[in-house]
Design a protein that fits this description.
The chain is mainly beta. The protein contains 1 helix and 8 strands; from the N terminus they run H-E-E-E-E-E-E-E-E. The radius of gyration is 13 Å and the shape is globular.
Length: about 90
């Protein structure tokens, strides 16, 4: 049940060394944050929902830089990354 909540609601999907965040949340949520550990690496994820959307990702940033297709290549080193996910329609 925990995995279903993380993958289907919060939208955290990890496959083949890659991570994607594609949430499906109530429109009343302004966002949420979570941490994900992969090896020694910590990913501090902040999801922003300024327009009250229930689904849809406009962009994803890793350490302040936009990520192509919203897919983050995971690493296992001793480092902490900041991930920002902006929900909404196309800007």
């Amino acid at each position: 049940m925990y995995r279903t909540w993380i993958e289907e609601v919060l939208g955290l999907q990890v496959r083949s060394g890659q991570m994607r965040v594609n949430p499906v949340i109530p429109g009343s949520w302004q966002g949420f944050s979570l941490s994900y550990r992969y090896g020694e690496t910590i990913y501090a994820i902040q999801v922003e929902n300024p327009h009250g959307c229930e689904r849809g990702v406009v962009w994803v940033e890793l350490d302040g830089k936009r990520v192509t297709d919203g897919v983050i290549a995971l690493e296992r080193g001793l480092v902490k990354h900041q991930v920002v996910v902006r929900m909404g329609g196309q800007e």
